[in-house]
Amino acid sequence: MRNAIRVIPFLVRLYVKSRLEYRGAFLLAISAQFFSYACGYAAIWILLQKFETLGGWDWPELALLFSFQLLAYSMGAALSFVQFRDLEELVRLGTFDTLLVKPFSPWAYLAFSGLNIGYAGHIALAAGLMVWSVLQVGIDWSLGSALYLLAALISAALVNAALITMIGASAFIFVQSSHLYTIFFGFWELSRYPLNIFPAGLQWLMITFVPLGFASFVPVAHLLGKDIPVLSDLGGLAAPLAGPLLVLVAMAHWKYAISRYQGGGG
Amino acid sequence: MYLAFASSAFQTQLAYRGQVWASLFGSAVHVFAWIAIWMSVYQDTASVDGVTLPQMVTYALIGGPVLTAWQWRRLLNLVGNSVTSGDVAIYLLKPLRYPLYLFATECGNLFYRLAVTGLPVLVIVALVYGMLPPASLFHGLLFIAFWALSFVIMFLIAALCGLLAFWLLTAFSLEWLLQGILMLLSGTHIPLWFFPDAVAAIIKLLPVAWVGYHPIAVYLGKTSVTETLIYLGLGLGWALLLAAAVSALWRRAALRITVQGG
Predict the structure, then answer these.
(1) What pLDDT, in 10s, does the model give residues A149-176?
(2) Domain total for chain A?
(3) Which of A27, A28, A217 to mutate against chain B (most B CBs within 10 Å)?
(4) What is the domain range of residue B255?
(5) Nearest CA in chain B to A185
(6) Domain containing residue A67
(7) Of A52, A186, A206, B149, which is most buried by a Cβ count within 10 Å?
(8) Chain A neighbours among B 148-177 (CB < 8 Å)?
(9) What ipTM does this complex have?
(10) What is the pLDDT of residues B153-168, one digit of tens each?
């Protein structure tokens, strides 16, 4: 553990330095992502100018949902997405073996040696939009609700990181994982919108087998006092717990998947 | 010869059958989300600005699986990577024109994507939610012309951005910028008739409007016969202009490669 505390900051520093080597390209990339997500939100804003609400949510409420979803995702994905998407390649080429012989957790090595600061654009946009929407929505903020928002955000980031890790680890078993990421992002896109606009079956799915509901809709709906399908009152309590719980599941899955790893063919 | 490239691209794609299920799912989820959005906002009203829910469901079905079947991102990255890495030099040695070669292979890819994801998703989702036929025979026939034009313009925009990577050294940023512009302005998701009038009047003249908005507006009969023909002419004009830009940019890039080549 002491070892890890010394090594992790070092790994992160190495990676950040290598990314900032091409500062111009880096800044252009994060600005482009900022712009792209902003355009997506602007499209819904234009829709709301005509229709006023979407599933009973007005613009500031939706802005809170969008920013929560994006902030939680970018925090979780910075720790996991690119690293575990590329794990498939490490497994295929057999280079993952070099991580197994290091006196360090392979998960932590992958996660932190690639801690993706490229999500800065996502985070800047999401944080800005969140500050604006927090001041606009009709919530009487108290210490309790502010702490709840923070806890739910951390939990939601963990939900994202845990799911992304689990998909990446499936490369140990199936060698391929990229198709599962396509499916993940399909559901992720749905989790941007109020869950109640979708058919009941899908609402149920999003809080059970694909628990992305906990990474956006459930906590935000609880803060805004909206109805939560399936869970109703339990939803508020479940949101901050979902992340830590999924992390445990992901850890068990990681262990199992690694035990199935047989090295790259050839 | 170029026809052979198109069919070869089609067959290459056929080899990656594992991708099919994932992209079928991705495409279906996307169109499904937009249909859910339209159903939700239309819950209490039958028509907004003279547009009904069945029309918007049809809009989502054409804007989704049909008009975005072709993956412009792949082309942008392909061109971007091959010009920045210098791999493109191989094509300079061959007796062919690189942009035309790309166009031929992408036609093959378009047909492949339509056959394995676009049309199946369209049929399945249309059976569940219903889809309107074209407003008239004229609009139906013209839609096909606009559809082809939509692909050509999108191909040219993606190729242009890919070639720009030769100078900007990053296809990644251009991809994201273009994605944002398409999302907001092309009308594949939000029809321009829901925009403020003054803004919509300007966007209607931008080339991206021919990627999504104009083809669907024609299908739904939102444009009169003369308007349709005028927009077809304007769209062809944009296509020619973009083609000239791609060809000029390609020539300059090719020249720079020759100068650099060692």
Answers:
(1) 999 999 999 999 999 999 999 888 887 7
(2) 1
(3) A28
(4) 2-260
(5) B26
(6) 2-260
(7) A206
(8) 168-170, 172-177
(9) 0.89
(10) 999 999 999 999 888 8
